[in-house]
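Researcher: Good morning. I'm working through a list of sequences from a screen, and I'd like to move beyond sequence-only analysis. For each chain I'm collecting a predicted structure so we can compare shapes side by side. This is the next one on the list. No need for commentary yet; just the structure.
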Amino acid sequence: MSRVSENSSVHSINYAVGKTKGKVEDLQLKGSTLKRVSKPSDDPIGNIDLLAIRSQNVDAEQYIRNLNFAQTQLSFTENVLEELTDILSKAKELAVGQASSIYSAEIRQGVAKEIHQLRQQAVSIANKRMGNRYLFAGQKILTRPFSAEGVYQGDKNKINIEINKDVFVPININGNDLFFSKAKKPLTKESLDLKTPGIDMEPEMNQGLVRSPASVAEGEEVSVSVFDELRALENALLTDNPQVIQGLLERLDDSIDRVVTTRTEIGALTNTISNAESNIEKTKLLNESHKSKIEDADVAELMSDLQKEQAVLKATYRASSNLMNTNLMDFLR
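Model: Good morning. C-alpha cells for this chain:
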C-alpha cells in the first residue's frame, strides 16, 4: 500500500485552492469590466480580430479629420468661385451694353473705371487665403499665386488628400487651370497697353502670355488670363473701340463657362466626400458590432459561472479543512 505524505497532501490542497481561486478572480474581473476578452490568452483568434478593428477605427478617425478639412476647403473655394462668377458676369453685362455704337466715348470711359475695379477684385479673389494657405497656388500654398499684374507664380500641381484606404481626392484648384484659357488668337500687347491718363495701371506685362499674333504658329494655342481679358476690355472702352469689345464677348463667355465647370467639379468632389464620410460612419458601426460580439461577456452566463466557481471554492475549503485536521491518532482509534 502506497503512503501519502503530509507534504503531498499540502501541495494537492494548495493546487486545488489556487486553481479554483484563479478561476473565481478571473470571473470577478470579467464581471467588473463585462469583457469576455481582457488579455490575448482569453481568445487568441478573437484578439487578432480585435486588434484589426482597433487599427481600422484609428484610421477612420484620421480619415474623418481629413474629410472635415477637405469639406471646409472646398466650401471656402466654392464661395470664392461664386464671387468670381459674379465679377465676370458683371463684366460681361457691361461689355454687352457697350458693344454697340450708341454710347459715347465719355460713357465708355466711365464704364472702363468700373471694369478696372472689377479686375482689381478678380486679382484679390485669385489671391484668397484660408488661414495662411493660398487657395489657387497649387502645392505652393505659402506663395502668393498672382502678382498685381496677374502673373501666375504658383504651380500646376494638385493637393490630394486620403479620404479612405488608398482613396485620394484633390481639394484645390490651381490658378493656371482656373484663370487661364487656351486660345488660338492671342491678345496683343497693344490691346492691353493702357496709356490713358487718369487710370493707375501697372505697365508691366506677362511676356509669356501676351504675344504678337505674328509670333504664334498656325494652330498653336496660347494661354490668356482672365485679367488680360479684363485689361483688354478696359482698354477697348478707353479707346472707344466697340469692335474689340464685341470680340471679347466670346472670351468672357469662355471664362465664365470655365469657372462654372470648376464649380460643378467642386460640387462633385463635395458629394464624394459626403459619401465617403457616410461610408466610414457605417463601417465604424459594423466594427463596433463585431467587436462587441467578440469582446463583450454574456452577463447571465458569467454570473452563473461565477456562482458555480464560488461554490466549488467553498467546497474545496471544507474538504481541505477536514483533511488538514486529520492526524495519526484518528486512524489508530
